[in-house]
Amino acid sequence: MNGITTRLDMSDNESPHYVHIFFMDGVGLGSADPNSNPFATAVLPHLTTLLGENWYTRERGRITTPRASLVPTDATLGVPGKPQSATGQATILTGRNAPQVVGEHYGPKPNTAVANLIHQGTLFHDVAAAGGRAALLTPYPPPYFDSINNGKRLYSAVPLAVTSAGFPLMTVDDLRNGRAVSPGFTNQAWRDLLGYTDMPLLTLWEAGQRIAALAQQYPFSFFEHWPSDRSGHRGTLAAARVHLEMLDTAIGGLLDAWDDAHGLLIITSDHGNIEEKEHRQHTTNPVPTILVGPDHANLAAAIHALTDIAPVVRQFLGLPHPRTN
Q1: What pLDDT score was predicted for residue 14?
Q2: Could you list the residue range(s) of the whole structural domain that residue 191 is in?
Q3: Which of 7, 64, 136, 310 suits 221 as a labelling partner, its CA being 20 to 30 A distant?
């Protein structure tokens, strides 16, 4: 890669470093009001042990513990309106202010302007250019690929970034053989809704542990949990609380199996939503960015907005920072 040495180039005598982004769609930092914020009544032992009480509120601000750092992260990026998925996810993956570049917050799927920004380069492209492997660990069923191929469906920002960089998307065979993890974690929906009655079932804890194990196989990997955004748009406050408790259990398995010495785990989101259940719209709240791994506090100090996540990944992996116009 033009003579540039990265952490992807380490010899067999050196321990590999890797980054995993665990992405929770539509999760912001809100108030402590139990009548609107399901975080206030949810029982979240794993994240609370990691970060302390009331970590999910705007008022807590930055948090640093021996194992982790949390940064309230600006998702509005100086652009009026409520943040949206396409531009938020593009910003996370590129490090560029996508809503500023395209002139608005846009989503849920990328329009031409957002797609062009993604094609210009993301973290997936950076790892590919350095000769490394990268993966989106969430799989897609055959009807999804059929819809993409016949033009009835557009890629969302993350799979567009993956395929644009030349990496394949995970399939039902990858899920069945333990090379991927379902967005819903357990695979029950693949049995009930998609007809794969032979799909092995996982507990939430096992799914988190599998994500940790798979992340060690790639310099950079990404897990996309989109049902959290759906839970913000639909359903009751009580159902959102149950969803958060499910998410905490899966993250608990991930944290239990995570190699803090070599892996940088980044848990983040693209915009707020589920933390204000008195309405069904996105919010302008900051989102939580949680870092676990080597030098997490110093890395977290560089994060203020969604634009800062990609530069931290590049710094950790020793990848060059691309020029932007």
Answers
A1: 58
A2: 29-317
A3: 64
Q: What are phi and psi of 302, to 5 degrees?
A: -90, -5
Q: Strand, helix or coil at 278?
A: coil
User: What's the distance, CA 72 to chain centroid?
Assistant: 15
**Could you give the CA distance from residue 109 to residue 112 in angstroms, rounded to a whole number?**
10
Nearest to 266 by CA among 317, 312, 318: 312
**What's the rounded Cα separation, in Å, for the pair 272 and 284?**
6
Q: Is residue 258 part of a domain?
A: yes
Q: Pairing relation of β-strands 68-73 and 220-225?
A: unpaired
Q: Residue 271: phi, psi to the nearest 5?
A: -170, 165
Q: Whole-model pTM?
A: 0.95
State the virtual CA torsion across 253, 43, 69, 31 in degrees, nearest 10. Answer: 150
pLDDT at residue number 4: 43
Tell me the helices (H) and strands (E) count for the chain, helix number first.
Answer: 14, 7
